[in-house]
Amino acid sequence: MIKKKNIINLIKYHVESDDFQFRNEAVDIARAFDQSGDHQLAEYVMSLLSSASTFVPQGNILESEFFKRVELDNDPLPLPTAISEDVKGVINAINHGLGINKFLFEGAPGTGKTETAKQIARLLNRQLYIVEFSELIDSKMGQTAKNIVEIFREINTMAYPSRTMILFDEIDAIALDRINSNDLREMGRVTSTILKELDKLSPEVVFIATTNLFEKFDKALNRRFDAIINFDRYTDDDLIEIAGIMLESMMKKFQNTGRDMKLFKKIIAKLDPIPYPGELNNLIRTSLAFSNPNNKFDYMKRLLRNVLKNPTDLKELQKEGFTLREIEILTGISKSQVARELKGE
């Protein structure tokens, strides 16, 4: 039920022209109506607050130097089925609203942990804030732990917690194994502080951390997360298909680029090892960006330089299993001329 303080706060924020807090209080009132069974009235209040089909808070919720707001995009994020299913499970768990809200993404660099967090925020229509560790870590004894307490205080007292997601990217920068740390006292203090603050985290806030050093993580910290998702689950076939999706997306931004997906995937398959998506994305983008605009398949040749020292050597290309037609595309030499030169004519 609505309490007197809700009405007083509503009037107060209106008089003070504090639109941010006014909206926050109105949302709390709508939630109270909904919980008491007056769903139509709750929907009516929300419709009055929203100028669009959904209510999206305006302005920054977290204003301190410890947080950076992340702009989200609609770029594709192809993932292997196993990881994709786990990500769907994370989204389902959050949507159920049962307080399952703390997740750890672990895996090698470039496996898509950070980008996945961004996509989850976009799909859940939440503002994403990343913690700035450069501002958080302090050389003064005990100050880093104090900063962590302050960060979680801001998180737990912010407006619109159900519309926010917090990302601790590469959390291992501040939370490694307390026993094996070279600076046992300070690292133990920092890690212990994180443990305590995670226990007090608001259930409405989605908290995601990523790490490349999972094996060095403090086991007690692992237990604070509701789920741990392993991103080191890419097969070569996964990576080849992902490379194709990346190329299709990038080609929309490049004019006069030739498309031969079979040849492209053949080249990607010859990379040893095939890079994880982060590096793969950079490799493809760089090959396209540096390609000759007058040669629509020049990016293929540039990609091939990661496999062969001389991507125009006809005998080497033949040895690698490329057909006459594929060699023609890669070198610009006609098939008939390629055939003659390979025969030594």
UniProtKB/TrEMBL annotation:
Any one Pfam family match given in the protein's UniProt record, by short name = AAA
InterPro entries tied to this protein: 26S_Proteasome_ATPase (IPR050221), AAA+_ATPase (IPR003593), ATPase_AAA_core (IPR003959), P-loop_NTPase (IPR027417)
Q: Which GO terms describe its molecular function?
A: ATP binding; ATP hydrolysis activity
The keyword Nucleotide-binding belongs to this UniProt entry's keyword annotation: yes
Keyword ATP-binding found: yes
Q: Where is the signal peptide?
A: none
The alphabetical list of record keywords is: ATP-binding, Nucleotide-binding
Q: Where is the AAA+ ATPase domain?
A: 99-235
The entry assigns this protein to a family as follows: Belongs to the AAA ATPase family.
Q: What is this protein called?
A: AAA ATPase
Could you tell me which species this protein originates from? Lactococcus fujiensis JCM 16395
